[in-house]
Amino acid sequence: MELTAKFLAQLLKGTVDGDENASAQKFAKIEHGKPGTISFFANPKYERYVYTSNASILIVSKDFSPKSAVKPTMIRVDNAYTAITELLKYVSDKKKKTRRHRSLHARWFWTTKFGKKVYLGAFSFVGHHTQVGDGTIIHEHVFIGDNCKIGKNCIFYPGVRIYPGMVIGNNVILHSGVVIGADGFGNAPRPDGSWEKIEHLGNVIIGDDVEIGANTTVDRAQMESTIIGNGVRIDNLCMIAHNVVIGDHTAMAAQCGIAGSAEIGKYCILAGQVGIVGHVKIADHTTIVAQSGIIGNVKKEGQTLMGSPAFPYMQYMKAYALFKHAAE
Known about the structure:
This protein is mostly beta strands. Helices cover about 10% and strands about 30% of the residues. The strands form 6 sheets. It has a 12-stranded mixed beta sheet with strand order 8-10-13-16-19-24-27-30-33-36-38-39. It has a 9-stranded parallel beta sheet with strand order 9-12-15-18-23-26-29-32-35, with no helix packed on it. Strands 11-14-17-20-25-28-31-34-37 form a 9-stranded parallel beta sheet, with no helix packed on it. The longest helix has 16 residues, at about 80-95.
């Protein structure tokens, strides 16, 4: 897709500083800019690359004052970070398959209900009595079981597996390898020390505007529902156990593990490899630093926690200053 400086200025509500006919077809980081690419500058640490970049177009904040000559045509906008985010979304949306298509190599049934402009890729499967909303894109090799309810404008990438009876909202993105609705890890000990499987008869309910990264798993509830709230962002390789509830707009980085029946509040941030035990409640606006472990309820909102078991960040840092020298 070729984009001119003039068009970008109109799209991003900015102004052109240079040749308005300059054009680009690809994106590049500012340090890798070359002719035909668009870059952006927002972090002052990268200012030196502004003067060496050979990109055709450079998006900058309107208050940027160059200290020497700049080769690329600059698009001045209110906020360079926001502008590049909007531009990437615009280009991504243009590339999406929005036409109605059902591959002859896909499988569905008379009881399956599709909305308008649904894309159904080859070797995908949509089960009996499942509903799929308008504009949803189901890529190749996706499995969706019976009696599911899928919202509008979702994207399911190749290899997604959705078990029967799941409920997924609008504008949900599931990346390759995501599994929604597998049985939870429920086993009861027998007197002889062996294990009796506990059946899981619930489902998973995913809200609107959720994105779940590759190879993440969300288990079905034992009873009732595992719930992922609106606007939640879950990275790759995370594990969400049965009956977990994750509040709206919480973000979770890679390799986090949430044990059964834990309740995570709204607007929380879980950095990489955070572990949370089962049956605890985490207050809204809690931030948990990478590799921390939560073993009890977090009742106070707005805290930043660190350590395993975790406690308030500043308290942890003071303690760390002492115990890192303990062996001496």
